[in-house]
Amino acid sequence: MAFLLMFVTVLHLITLAMLFIATMEKSWWSWDTTKNSDLWYNCHYDNGSGAWMCTSTKETEWLQSVQALMVLSVVFCSISFLVFLVQLFCMSKGGLFYITGLCQIFAGLTAFTATLIYTLHHTEILEGDEKTGQFGYCFILAWVCVPLLLCSGVMYVHLRKKE
């Protein structure tokens, strides 16, 4: 049981880090090595200065939905971890981690909804500039987080506190 507890805790921390990176990094859509777009900025690499030049993205309703859902997913995952720590030290023997599991499942569902919206509406979000590019690593990272969050949520629901 200690191994399962350690595995779920490490999985939770990994998914939290992956969600945070997917939400904050610059690569939800990439055109080439010198131009990419994320949930917050459109960036291009300036060879003259050797730096990334970023401008705010034009906020569409779809993009605002994706932004809100990804932030909500990070918040749910963070709350889930804090609740898990509180339950781990305060819950009586034999108790189940229902609240932690439900928060983690909600985090997975919000991340799923955000990535699904971006998948289906990237043409509106990018305003027709998507023809030469492809999905970036942060988008893929967000999709990878979805099953990990849902699996860890289910594991938390079935996990019992042992002495």
Automatic annotation (TrEMBL):
Bilayer-crossing regions: 68-89, 96-120, 140-159
Keywords annotated in UniProt: Membrane, Signal, Transmembrane, Transmembrane helix
Subcellular location: Membrane
Main subcellular localisation: membrane
Membrane topology: Multi-pass membrane protein
Domain of life: Eukaryota
Signal peptide bounds: 1-17
A matching Pfam family: PMP22_Claudin
Any one of the GO CC terms: plasma membrane
Keyword Heme attributed: no
Family: Belongs to the PMP-22/EMP/MP20 family.
Protein name, per record: Epithelial membrane protein 3
